[in-house]
Amino acid sequence: MPRVFHTRDLKFEKKKSQLPEFAWQTSPRLAKLANAGQLEFDIRSLDPDCFSFPFHFHRAAEELFLILSGEGTLRTPEGFHKIAAGDLIFFERGERGAHQLYNHSDVPCIYLDIRTTVGIDVCEYPDSGKLAILPMLEVFENRSRVRYYQGEANVREKWPGEILRKPS
């Protein structure tokens, strides 16, 4: 069944951040209200002189912004771009889709944020060297990366001897 959301009727919820530079508001979870399966979407309001999320990219999700009102500056791997009402911005998966939004104006920048969901996503933050497992939001530092088989050299010690084949 189609679900109509009248943007004029939406009540925004302020998201709390430990850093005042990251201050935005979001609509209630519209995708949940619509019973969406593989699509996430929200309407966000980015306060003046604030940033959206830290500079990041997704490994398993694509994202699309439609600027509904106001303006801002978009940071991408290619540089900084002014954006304004009516602009549609697509972010591909991977490093080339990295992005961050800043509201350089005196009025809120309101935009529709649409994302694909395929279960688990890994979000990387190039500025801070972190990665996050989404949707659980488990955050780790990249410097803790190790080779795949590190720590696995003694696998036979974890198995009962009667199960393992005897060397011939």
Keyword list:
1 helix, 38% strand, elongated, mainly beta, 168 residues, 13 strands
End-to-end Cα distance? 66 Å
The parts where pLDDT drops under 50 for at least 5 residues are none
List the quaternary state of the chains.
single chain
Question: What's the pLDDT, averaged over the residues?
Answer: 91
Given helix and strand content, the structural type is mainly beta
Q: What are the secondary-structure elements, in order, as H or E? A: EEHEEEEEEEEEEE
- Write down how many β-strands occur, each being a DSSP E stretch of 2 or more residues: 13
Proportion of beta-strand residues:
35-45%
Helix-residue proportion: under 10%
Biggest sheet strand line-up: 1-2-3-10-5-8
Q: Helix count, per DSSP?
A: 1
The shape, in one word, is elongated
- Radius of gyration from the CA trace? 21 Å
For the sheet with most strands, the description reads: 6 strands, antiparallel
Give the structure's gist in a few sentences:
The chain has 168 residues and is an all-beta fold. The chain has one helix and 13 strands.
Describe the structure.
- It is a single chain.
- With 168 residues, this protein is an all-beta fold.
- The chain is 3% helix and 38% strand.
- The protein is built from one helix and 13 strands; from the N terminus they run ββαβββββββββββ.
- The strands form three sheets. The chain has a six-stranded antiparallel beta sheet. A four-stranded antiparallel beta sheet has the order 4-11-12-13, with no helix packed on it.
- β12 and β13 form a beta hairpin.
- It is elongated and about 75 Å long.
